[in-house]
Write a structure and sequence with these properties.
By secondary structure, the protein is mostly helical. It is about 65% helix and about 5% strand. The chain contains 6 helices and 3 strands, in the order βββαααααα. It has helices spanning about 25-30, 35-60, 65-75, 85-105, 110-130, 135-155, and strands at about 5, 15, 20. Strands 1-2-3 form a 3-stranded antiparallel sheet, with no helix packed on it. Strand 1 (about 5) and strand 2 form a beta hairpin. Helix 3 packs across helix 4. It is elongated and about 55 Å long. The two termini are about 35 Å apart. About 25% of the residues are buried.
Length: about 170
């Protein structure tokens, strides 16, 4: 029998065969991209690009990563954070951002890297709370939600990552 097309209220056409809609499994055969895997990859890539270029920008600015570290330490001098913790964090942040970003872009150790990224974002938000920069805190927590959603989705389907192709990797589900 000829396939019939029905228009849903939201304007998407669905194929009807023999009087009933195609089920989800049938639709997956003609749609080549796995939606959960694609959502996981998009969230992972968006955070990866953000972190990679944020870290790279710290190296390329005037004074480089050292200048960034010095400025960050100085900007937190009026808070109660101890210098002995602030100095290694401030000087290490550009390196951490570039490495996390690259790992996220490639999809290597995806779940672990997303968890560390979320924790780093919470740490950065804490520092901004001490400086009363609540707009930045809100932005950071939006990124934490993106990391959490990416982490959850990567646990469901991580097929668009390097992890998927590594033998015996914990993240290679599909």
């Amino acid at each position: 029998p000829a396939a019939l097309w029905r228009r849903h209220s939201f304007g998407i056409k669905r194929k009807q065969t023999e009087g009933h809609d195609m089920n989800e499994r049938s639709e997956a055969r003609w749609w080549p991209i796995a939606p959960v895997g694609a959502a996981s990859a998009l969230l992972r890539l968006s955070l990866g690009v953000l972190f990679f270029f944020a870290g790279l920008g710290k190296f390329l600015r005037e004074g480089g990563a050292v200048g960034f570290g010095e400025n960050l330490v100085e900007s937190f001098s009026d808070t109660y954070l101890p210098r002995f913790l602030l100095i290694p964090f401030s000087y290490g942040l550009p390196y951490i951002e570039v490495v996390l970003g690259a790992l996220l872009i490639l999809g290597i150790r995806t779940r672990e890297v997303l968890a560390v990224t979320g924790l780093l974002l919470i740490n950065l938000a804490f520092g901004q709370i001490l400086k009363h920069e609540y707009g930045t805190v809100a932005n950071n927590f939006n990124y934490v939600l993106i990391a959490a959603a990416g982490l959850w989705l990567a646990g469901q389907d991580n097929r668009y990552s390097v992890d998927h192709f590594l033998p015996g990797a914990a993240n290679n589900q599909s």
